[in-house]
Amino acid sequence: MTPAILRQIIDYDHRANPYPLYAELRKTPVYHEEDGPFVISGYYDIQSLLHDPRISSDARNLRSTAGDPLAAEADEEAALPPSFLRLDPPEHDRLRRMTNRSFGPPHTPRHVYEMRGELSDIVTELIAGIESTERIDLVDQFSYPFPVTVICRLLGVPREDEARFHVWADIIAASLDPDPSPGADSAERVKVAHSARTELGMYLAGLIEERRKKPGEDMLSLLATSPGPDGSMTTMEVLSTSVLLLIAGHETTVNLITNGMLTLLRNPDILQRLREDAALAVPIVEELLRFEPPVQLVPQRTTLADIEVRGVTIPKGSSLWLVLAAGNRDPERFDHPDRFDPDRGDIQHLGFGSGIHSCFGAPLARLEAQLALSELARRLENPRLLEDPPPYRQNAVLRGPRHLPIACDAILP
Questions:
Q1: How would you classify residue 55: left for phi > 0, otherwise alpha for psi between -120 and 50, otherwise beta?
Q2: Looking at the chain, which terminus has fewer C-beta neighbours within 10 angstroms, N or C?
């Protein structure tokens, strides 16, 4: 085990294929470097800790971030309004329950399913907007605009404001990636990102007040006005939840779709099967969530007590990294873990986490990816990669191609 394995994992040079590093990491089930985080990489250990009430998501419980190489990125994210993603029970449970009233069972059980028609229309519109088949950037022309448009429709952002929303989302998404060349431009980058967050917050706050006065059927209206046993959300709580939906829901779905198409293009036999049978999109997406998860690791969970894992005592107040992508390729859990196989009979992956912080938007992300990949497979005639590996984002946590240049012979109707 090299002493610098955590630095290697976040080093951009390994972004295209971090999996050999994860395999090395699994040789030491509880890995710890000096004053750095305790890193857990085995499937069963991660699954257990995700359900352990002694593990906190609230950064205020963290003793120190001095040796955590991802701490700086977390500090940037902390500038955003707080959300239930970074809270513990009971406050987490209250806000998540209130959000779920307008998003899923038991109060609105068909909300996501009934978006299928609108999602299909957005997919069709984006594919129709591809002009040249000689060089298509799947990220810029499809994977990126699709989920942010869905979030706009979900929240009820007026169509005439969607372009402004896209600009803010672009800037905020870019700010989540580490600065590839820190220097004179860094201060300006931070300033632009802060300005985008402020403008987005002010815009959403105004929209929330409008919905309180004249509610519609959109999620923002339901969040702002729907009464329940926990009461109504404050404006700040609605704002923080909306920002969470934008960032968490958008970034993960972009990566899921892009990693998905990249994996299918590397496995043309499976791509051809999907083209012939759209129903195969369901197991394909589940296997993608195991094989190439859009969230590679969960950093900065904190121990609320001394916890023993595999004979190692992790002290109270320690920082934890749960490396979901390493657990998803753990040979103790999955046969032939480095093989992409949508025919697996058991794909109980960690791609959406688990426990009380399991991905809130998982049903929507699944549906978006299923519709996107099945339609791309059906309509792109003889698609092929132009660069392999493609250029990746700087972010080691939200890992995915920044661009995915492809070509095809034609786009079918």
A1: beta
A2: C
CB atoms under 10 Å from CB of 17, counted, come to 10
What proportion of the chain, given as a percentage, has pLDDT over 70?
92
Closest CA to 402 of 16, 126, 9, 8: 16
Q: Which helix (H) or strand (E) holds 77?
A: helix 71-78
**What are 245-256's pLDDT values in tens digits?**
888 878 899 999
Q: How far apart are CA 263 and CA 40, in angstroms?
A: 26
Residue 205 has which token pair? 């706050």
Taking only Cα atoms into account, the Rg of the chain, rounded to an integer number of angstroms, comes to 21
Name the token pair of 33: 């470097």
Interval 131-153: pLDDT, tens: 999 999 999 999 999 998 999 99
Burial letters 121-147, b for 16+ CB under 10 A, else e: ebbeebbeebeebeebbbbebbbbbbb
Q: What is the DSSP letter of 393?
A: P
Structure tokens at 376: 């791309």
Reading the block at residue 17, the tokens are 């294929």
Dump strand ranges (E) for 235-364: 298-303, 307-309, 312-314, 319-322
The pLDDT tens digits of the residues spanning 98-136 come to 888 877 777 777 878 888 999 999 999 999 999 999 999
Do residues 189 and 177 make contact, with C-beta atoms less than 8 angstroms apart? no
Assess contact for 250 and 174: CB atoms under 8 A. no
Contact present, 28 and 34 (Cβ < 8 Å): no
- Is the pLDDT score of 77 beyond 50? no
Please report the pLDDT score of residue 165 as a whole number. 85
What is the SS3 assignment for 241-278? HHHHHHHHHHHHHHHHHHHHHHHHHHCHHHHHHHHHCH
